[in-house]
Amino acid sequence: MADDDRDHSDGVGLDPATIVIDWPASRMEWIDRIEAQLVPRLVDDQRFVNADALIGKVRRLAALLGTAPENRDYIRALIEDVNEMATAASLLDRMEARATLHYEPPLAGTKKRIDFLVRSNDGRRAWFEVKSIRPSWDDGDASWQRFERLAADFPGNARLIVQRELAGAVIAGQAVKARWGFLSRTADVEQRAALLQPEDDGPVRLVLCSNGFDWTESDLEDFADFYRTGAFRPDDWSRNAIPLYLEENRIVFRRILAGLCYLQRSYDAVFASRFTFDVSGPDFNW
Q1: Distance between terminal CA atoms of the chain?
Q2: By C-alpha distance, which of 255, 143, 268 is closest to 203?
């Protein structure tokens, strides 16, 4: 709010420097909306057989955040868990009437878990692991210099064009970190998928979550095509950098995931605004 008593209802004369946002109160209002809107959506759907397990985890985190409103670890964990809730709601929207949804069911032969199992009426299984990618905001010189080193190896026909004076270090840094996040999360989920025993076997998909600002579905399209085919799109600016990252981090994809999905939910939203199954890039005729 403005710190003076003038009428700013039309926005004229309002100094942004005088605006004060009560972030803890805003987060508590967001949690209240989760309880009022998202929780009933999950609990009231009998197909989600153990919705309480996920909801209980979120409520425990919300209680912790209430005692430490500025704790960044609690905030990050809550965002990730609410993305899981939003994914559950999106899956329920797509599921058959007689299918069931299970949160973190035990896997045979391992203590590791995969976030969601969808079991169809005829016994078929489909698995979904949810990962949130939230690149850090860094507008410093070191971030810009890292981008310049990477840009020197861009392919001749594709560029990531940013300007240093217009938050270029932030924009470029988030784009690059998002790509690295796709790589590392996919490698992790491949390891989990490889642990499935015959009695648990079924397609495994990775759901990657964004707030729609740090990165978007179009950023994922290039990587999704590369993961599926093993070949880079001709317009992918990162096609020279990714092989180097994979080599340096000793990542070798087995390409055993059935697909990469995209979920978009802004930080103050309750439900996802977008959920795309098996992302792929546009089918250009190169």
Answers
A1: 53
A2: 255
Q: Which of 265, 257, 133, 238 is nearest to 190 (CA)?
A: 257
Residue 219 three-state SS:
helix
Please check the confidence at residue 86 and state whether its pLDDT lies above 80: yes
The answer to whether 210 and 283 have CB atoms below 8 angstroms apart is no
- Give the whole-angstrom CA distance, residue 133 versus residue 127: 19
Spatial CB neighbours of 82, under 8 Å, sequence gap ≥ 6: 34, 38, 58, 265, 270
Show the DSSP H helices in 134-240 as ranges: 141-151, 168-193, 217-229
Q: What pairing do the DSSP bridges indicate for beta strands 259-264 and 204-210?
A: parallel
pLDDT digit string, tens, across residues 57-81: 999 999 999 999 889 899 999 999 9
List the 100-103 sheet strands across, edge first: 100-103, 116-119, 125-132, 204-210, 259-264, 274-276
Q: Which two tokens stand for residue 245?
A: 């990252």
pTM value is 0.81
Q: Which of 185, 222, 191, 227 is nearest to 206 (CA)?
A: 185
Helix (H) or strand (E) holding 76: helix 72-94
Q: Is 77 exposed, middle or buried, given 0-12, 13-18 or 19+ CB atoms closer than 10 A? A: middle
Task: Give domain limits for the chain.
Answer: 16-276
pLDDT tens digit string along 6-20?
444 455 555 555 555
Residue 139 confidence (pLDDT) above 90: no
pLDDT class for 162, splitting at 50, 70, 90?
very low
Residue range 215-245, pLDDT digits in tens: 899 889 989 999 999 998 787 767 777 887 7
> Facing residues of 132 across strands?
209
Are 231 and 253 in contact by the 8 Å Cβ rule? The answer is: no
- Name the residue among 55, 46, 47, 195 with its Cα closest to residue 114: 195
